[in-house]
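Students often ask why inverse folding is considered easier than folding. One informal answer: many sequences map to the same fold, so there is more than one right answer. In these notes we will look at a single instance of the problem. The structure comes first.
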């Protein structure tokens, strides 16, 4: 994650059935274990920096039960770390559902499997129906981050303390805590995605990378500045990442036609509307055309920014995102294994020529 590439690249949500596309298209992503290993090794060979999973415990319903089949992210990460050589593989954890002592041991095990390549994505609160299934009440919004702060303090202290310690927090109280082994190569990289004031403060204080919503690159420039200003208030620097979904074809017209087909004609609208509702997004104030575009973006790629076109267009869009100040993007495809090879073959060389990535990263051999 700390190489010289100006724009880091990763894969988002490959651990979930259908990935990021809320579609009934028959070629949509089948998140079998063999497909995940194949994808991880393709990314490893291409010099892609990271894989980032979604932690989801139940589906969104609809005809496809979107994301109804998901791999638990820490064991998923451990398996993929064992199957690769260079990738950072993140695990995504809901802190309210996992005790910090157990979490510290679990993460460090994955980290040693990968020789120090494990990354941690901290989530302090999420969809209520997941928590209902666990019988766990979510805390009031801002206090979720207070709990997350204590949780992360405990995990870090387990990884760094040489002697047993007590912890006396507002939410967590522990006695004679120990934990070995320690991480393989210092503290793992940590990321967080939050849009609220409390969430951004948490991320700015504790994380190396912070994901923020990308509506368009120009608006994103202001988001990057806002995040970095919060971090500067804590005398810290963080890199800001965005999420995108990619439809690459030989021509822009061909890509746009496929985009319309899978994200409109073949959209699983019941699951789309459930996804929007659970994320607490309110659309009543949008004009009809704005609402249609907003809803289709969720069908196409979980609400992320669309990169739809030929290789030249996609590379140019990624340059715009980089120029706006983003340090990296996490990408979704309708079918990762089928579509990523064309991205690696056609877009990566263009990013190299644009100076966004080093050519040596692409020429690495596969495991």
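Output (designed amino acids):
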């Amino acid at each position: 994650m700390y190489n010289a590439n100006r724009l880091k690249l990763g894969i988002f949500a490959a651990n979930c059935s259908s990935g990021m596309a809320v579609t009934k298209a028959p070629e949509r992503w089948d998140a079998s274990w063999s497909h995940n290993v194949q994808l991880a090794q393709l990314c490893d060979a291409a010099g892609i920096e990271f894989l980032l999973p979604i932690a989801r415990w139940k589906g969104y319903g609809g005809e496809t039960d979107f994301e109804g089949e998901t791999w638990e992210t820490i064991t998923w990460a451990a398996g993929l770390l064992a199957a690769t050589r260079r990738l950072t593989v993140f695990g995504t954890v809901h802190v309210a559902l996992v005790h910090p002592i157990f979490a510290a041991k679990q993460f460090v095990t994955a980290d040693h499997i990968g020789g120090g390549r494990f990354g941690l994505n901290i989530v302090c609160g999420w969809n209520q129906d997941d928590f209902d299934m666990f019988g766990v009440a979510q805390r009031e919004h801002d206090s979720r981050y207070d709990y997350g702060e204590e949780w992360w303090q405990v995990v870090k202290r387990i990884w760094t303390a040489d002697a047993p310690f007590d912890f006396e927090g507002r939410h967590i109280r522990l006695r004679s805590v120990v934990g070995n082994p320690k991480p393989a190569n210092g503290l793992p990289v940590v990321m967080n995605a939050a849009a609220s004031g409390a969430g951004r403060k948490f991320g700015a204080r504790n994380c190396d990378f912070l994901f923020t919503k990308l509506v368009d690159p120009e608006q994103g420039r202001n988001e990057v500045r806002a995040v970095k200003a919060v971090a500067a208030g804590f005398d810290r620097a963080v890199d800001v990442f965005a999420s995108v979904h990619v439809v690459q074809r030989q021509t822009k017209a061909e890509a746009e036609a496929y985009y319309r087909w899978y994200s409109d004609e073949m959209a699983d609208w019941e699951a789309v509307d459930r996804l929007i509702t659970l994320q607490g997004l309110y659309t009543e104030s949008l004009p009809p055309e704005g609402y249609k575009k907003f809803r289709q973006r969720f069908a196409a790629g979980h609400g992320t920014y669309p990169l739809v076109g030929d290789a030249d267009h996609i590379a140019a869009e990624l340059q715009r995102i980089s120029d706006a100040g983003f340090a990296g993007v996490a990408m979704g495809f309708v079918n990762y294994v089928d579509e990523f090879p064309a991205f690696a073959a056609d877009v990566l060389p263009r990013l190299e020529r644009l100076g966004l990535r080093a050519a040596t990263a692409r020429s690495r051999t596969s495991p």
